[in-house]
Amino acid sequence: MSILQPLEQKTLSEKLFLVRFKTNTESHLKVNPERCKVCKDKSCIYICPAEVYKMDEKENITISFEGCLECGTCRIACEFIEWRNPKGGYGVCYRYG
Amino acid sequence: MDKFDCIIIGAGPAGVSAALTIARKGLTVTVFERGEYPGSKNLFGGVLYSTVLNKLIPEFYNEAPVERHITKRRYSILSKNSEMAVEFDFEDFNHPPFNNSFTVLRAKFDRWFAQKAEEAGAVIFTETVVDDFIYDNGKVAGVRARREGGDVYADVVICAEGANSLLTERAGLKKKPLPHQMITAVKEVVSLPKEVIEDRFNLSNNEGMALEFFGEAVKGMIGSGFIYTNKDSLSVGVGCPISVMKEKNMKPNDLLESFKSHPVVKKLLRGGKTEEISAKMIPELGYGNLPRLTADGLLIVGDAGGFVNPSLYREGTNMAMYSGMMAAETILEAKEKGDFSERGLQGYVKKLEDSFVMEDLERYGDVPEKLSEMPQLFKEYPEAILKLAKGYFTVSDLSKEDMHRQAWNRFKDKVSMWKFLLDMYKARKAVL
């Protein structure tokens, strides 16, 4: 590839695919569905750098915890998200950092 | 189970600095790290300031996996499709100790640093997450690790858990930070051949450059974008307060992509290949909101303690290392007196107060708050200044005097001169 060619544009999921994860079976993130129902902002959906939180057709929040970069932003943005560190050795494993 | 002299939670720069200092004095110290290896969960923008590290391990740069030493700095303000920049190049920083500033990739660097602590006698347990402290009569007496036989005891515990400070909050030493007190930064490592980096940024062998971008770099919000040169990659990222992104419903990844696609930035990334994406919170708690740093049997160090200089100096790891080293020295003194109560550990706070750490936090800690009162610095002013400059440079048949007058009139339509000068003065005071 030429060094003058623009940097290849990648979607977020393509970029997350480059990151090494050791996937746990159990989510380390939890939302409170009762609170989600009355939440107007739903900041979790956009504030997460890995876009782990999505809303399904029934307006429930789903969590793809497998792609979590473990920054903790959602926990600061939302009062009600429960954040627990993944099991030792699991989760994101940066090769560069 | 045996009792250790000291347990440290987290094998980042703060925790490892503490472990190294304590182990060298022959005390038993064990570090619990939740990642697969030290550094595997760790991240920063890219520049390590190393005055403290150079004391801990003199001339570390001869053996540590550092990328490049920073001799060049560039500060740039972007509008939609223009740039105004100032660039510095210091040949004097091209010699040992290289101005104590190096680009570093943390997965490699932290691993090396942790190894140094192990060589000194510290024991590091990786893949071990700590869920809570163990208390004995109100004093922290150990930690509860999530593994078999996970209750481990020590005279004193150092919490170096990082910015997402679950344990520090749980222990009641810190309130959960508010969205305006935390920055979220996202970064990509973009690989490029070494020669291309050196050619593109005008660097000789191992020289490096730190580029900071403001204004349209983060869509005119408070915050910045950056490019730091590594050996054969660039660290490219953006960071903004969580409160600001919340207000604008901004996706961090969209912000990063917008930065990367700015005409100025795009050219710098040509031919690159994204290797990894990462995200981290940076604490900007403000001097008045720092957590309680000690409790009976417990000390808080590094990002968990909020030790980040948020000004243009952007210093985090160096402060983290200093806090780790001072926590360790405090523990060595407490060991002699046999007093690990909060009172016995007060020397830690005093040591920080007598150092650059607290002096700089006091001086710069409220920079983000002050800047947030002047959002025009990041949006209206960059646009207006670059338009003014464009007016000066756009070739036309007008006399130069007419050109200048028109440019200034347009500027003054957008910006009140008095307010502008006052804001510039306030901003300079706040930032440098």
Summarize this structure briefly.
The complex is a heterodimer of chains A (97) and B (432). With 97 residues, chain A is an alpha+beta fold.
Structure description:
The complex is a heterodimer of chains A (97) and B (432). In chain A, 21% of the residues lie in helices and 14% in strands. Chain A has 97 residues and is of the alpha+beta class. Chain A has a two-stranded antiparallel sheet. The longest helix of chain A is centred in the middle third of the chain and has 6 residues, at 33-38. The radius of gyration of chain A is 16 Å and the shape is globular. The mean pLDDT of chain A is 95. In chain B, helix 1 (13-24) runs parallel beside helix 9. Chain B folds into three domains: 3-65 and 105-177 and 285-370, FAD/NAD(P)-binding domain (3-Layer(bba) Sandwich); 190-270, no CATH class; 374-431, no CATH class. Chain B has 432 residues and is of the alpha/beta class. Chain B has helices spanning 13-24, 51-56, 106-119, 166-170, 194-200, 242-247, 252-260, 263-268, 317-337, 347-353, 356-364, 367-372, 380-393, 400-414, 417-431, and strands at 3-9, 29-32, 47-49, 69-78, 83-89, 101-103, 123-125, 130-136, 139-145, 151-159, 182-191, 207-215, 224-229, 233-241, 273-283, 294-295, 298-300. In chain B, strand 13 (224-229) and strand 14 (233-241) form a beta hairpin. In chain B, strands 1, 2, 7, 8, 9, 10, 16 and 17 form an eight-stranded mixed sheet that branches. Chain B has a seven-stranded mixed sheet with strand order 5-4-12-13-14-11-15. The mean pLDDT of chain B is 96. Chains A and B meet through helix 1, helix 4 and strand 6 of A and helix 3, strand 11, helix 6, helix 7 and strand 15 of B.
